[in-house]
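Title: Prediction job returns without error message
Component: structure pipeline
Severity: low
Priority: P3
Assignee: unassigned

Description:
Job completed but the reporter wants confirmation the result is attached to the right record. Sequence as submitted:
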Amino acid sequence: MRTVAVKSQYQTIALASIHESTTNPRRTFEESKLAELAASLRTQGLIQPITVRPNSDGYEIIAGARRFRAAQLAAFEEIPVRIVQLSDEQALEWMLVENSQRLDVHPYEEAQGFQRLLDLPGYDAATLAEKTGKSESLIYSRLALLHLIPEVAKAFQAERITASHANLIARLPQDFQQQAFEACWRKDYQDKEAHLLPAKHLSAWIANNVYLPLDEAPFDREGATLNPGAGACSACPRRSGYNTSLFFDVAADQCLDGNCYHAKLTQHIDREVAARPELVRIETDHRNPNERQPGTLSRWEYTEVDAPEVENEDGEPVTPCGASKPSSSPSCGTKRQCCLIGVGSKSWPEESRTTLCALKYVKPTKSSMSQPRTTWQPTCCRT
């Protein structure tokens, strides 16, 4: 940590010769609190001097802008100050660190201050944590607030949503933030206006509508060819595991980019179908016929059945291949992974034994069969 020796002296100077700094990150002062402080100054005086540095316009405030404003409200003509000699960089650092250590600074303004410190030479998240006494996870959470879309950032600064809501939204890609912001509110039949829901409701919405568990993905997370523009999942920053300090409360590694995830999923399925033409596709959710993929079985055109334990009466149990993964939900769902599954009868073809990914088994209904099927075949599930 960098230590700077600063010469200082204490004086009482005219209030008119003091001015606020244009680089002070703190912009919001609650008027009622200023009035309370001004009333206290009238009876007790200014006990703690403000810190200033001399410049061409008089004295620039380094620390104590709130006390300065209260002294103006109290109609003081002069106040005690501590005069320090600082360079522009040192002055900025003092202001930013001093504000970050206060309890009443708005988190968004604190985030702006952190970012300005990171723009100074020699600063990173670890240095910020050491200088300010805050945890690295809080540093990352504050910095993430700067990625809020304008509408959400404005609502947060106006305190229409809490810091908990803002932090949850800020961690998401910006193309999801508007939806997440709208999920913060609910208007019941007796309400004239929508009311803000607790942050836990937003957290549940994100878990159900945004997060995609990478450990359940059927495709190769190390492969870079499924979506060449995005590359491998393991190196992607749009996942919770990329920054565990920011996503400290999120279990497992979650994909945050649904478009990329489903592009990889589609490519993975297409490759499997091309490699094994006998595969057929099913859908796990009801869908408009016009939206269905050609050749797929809709949800009402097949029936789930128990997995066969043996391929014939004298044979060995059918063992899922290494690519199969347990599902955390009864069905793939609209956002869960699609996976290779099987349909057919107990007499598995010889070539299917090593390629079956047995997450579930389904049997086509008679109405969906163009011709009778006497054997079970590997099937691909696509939502």
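Comment from assignee: result matches the submitted record. Residues 276-381 form one domain.
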